[in-house]
Amino acid sequence: MVESLHSDGRAGIDADLVKRLIASQFPQWGRLPVSPVAVDGWDNRTYRLGDDMTVRLPTAEGYAPAVDKENRWLPVLASSLPVPVPPVLGKGAPGEGYPFSWSVRGWLDGETAGPDRIDDLSHFAAAVAEFILALQGIDPTDGPQAGAHSFHRGASPAYYDDETRRSLAVLDGRVDVQRASAVWDAALAASWQGPPLWFHGDIGSGNLLVRNGKLAAVIDFGTSGVGDPACDLVIAWTMFSGDSREAFRSTVRQDPAMWARARGWALWKALICVAEYTDTDPERAAEHRRVINEVLADHDRLG
């Protein structure tokens, strides 16, 4: 038996556990080597299985519903998207002391996106925007409505109102609270009036794969669902700037209210991260502070 999971869900998830799970539930793959991937995530632990597959294990109970959701919907979404998404090859059951369902996926070649791996950031930004538009164009019928499974991405950012205002109070004197409050109030006022649309929920550099300098795949649909896709625009401030941000903005073609809510999503995450990391990880806090400043300037310029 592996060590039982700690409260953070990560104890006991290792290559030996994956080997035992594969051997007991997918014996046809039981002789394949298992190794950790070079860049891992927080919600899941991912391991390479042979040359062509991965195994993903949720790290905590809150992330476990994504297994069934992705297994159900990734094959549906894949045919309408301009770049590959993870192929679903199998679903594992709890076992060997591990308490959640888990998944086997096809391996997608590429490296996580970064400026040094991208030929032209403006072209890349446009490609990401085209992916978002293609996702929004997929029939949302019976899709998973935004809620706890998406950590409320796709719903109103008002879900995080208390958390945001607490962060603003903590950061008074460290960020421009008056301007930030105006951005947040504008996000709450710009309510979603359209029909529900598909959203990814975590469009960021870690979930965008690059090959030969171009967008090659999009991974990790654990926070995906159907609702308001404003959360998918946050990358405009976290990864893009200047010409690349304008290329993204002009290609993705969203209305001012959508952008107002997107600024709210970006501000919420950056505020809670600055509040958390200012004293413990100044470099990380500085990056989130940069996002706050970019969002405030964008609001001042566009309203």
CATH fold group of the largest domain: Aminoglycoside 3'-phosphotransferase, Chain: A, domain 2
Radius of gyration: 20 Å
Unreliable spans are 1-9
Taken in chain order, the helices and strands follow as HEEEHEEEHHHEEEEHHHH
Whole-number mean pLDDT: 94
Shape: globular
Return the CATH class of the largest domain: Alpha Beta
* CA-CA gap between termini: 57 Å
* Main sheet: strand order: 1-2-3-5-4
* Portion in helices: 40-55%
By DSSP (H or I, 4+ residues per run), the number of helices equals 9
Instruction: Work out the strand percent.
Output: 5-15%
How many β-strand runs?
Answer: 10
Q: Would you identify the CATH H-level superfamily of the largest domain?
A: Aminoglycoside phosphotransferase (APH), C-terminal lobe
**Overall SS class:** alpha+beta
Biggest sheet: strands, sense, closure?
A: 5 strands, antiparallel
**Which second-level CATH architecture of the largest domain applies?**
Alpha-Beta Complex
Overall tally of structural domains: 2
Textual characterization of the structure:
- The strands form three sheets. Strands 1-2-3-5-4 form a five-stranded antiparallel β-sheet, sandwiched between helices. Strands 6-8-9 form a three-stranded antiparallel β-sheet, with helices on one face. A two-stranded antiparallel ribbon has the order 7-10.
- 40% of the residues lie in helices and 14% in strands.
- Strand 2 and strand 3 (53-58) form a beta hairpin.
- The termini are far apart.
- It has 303 residues and is α+β, with helices and mostly antiparallel strands.
- It has nine helices and ten strands.
- It is globular, with a radius of gyration of 20 Å.
- The longest helix is centred in the C-terminal third of the chain and has 22 residues, at 256-277.
- The chain has helices spanning 15-25, 65-78, 121-136, 161-170, 177-189, 235-238, 242-252, 256-277, 282-302, and strands spanning 34-36, 44-49, 53-58, 88-92, 102-106, 111-112, 197-199, 208-211, 214-218, 225-227.
- The protein folds into two domains: 15-106, Phosphorylase Kinase, domain 1 (2-Layer Sandwich); 111-302, Aminoglycoside phosphotransferase (APH), C-terminal lobe (Aminoglycoside 3'-phosphotransferase, Chain: A, domain 2, Alpha-Beta Complex), CATH 3.90.1200.10.
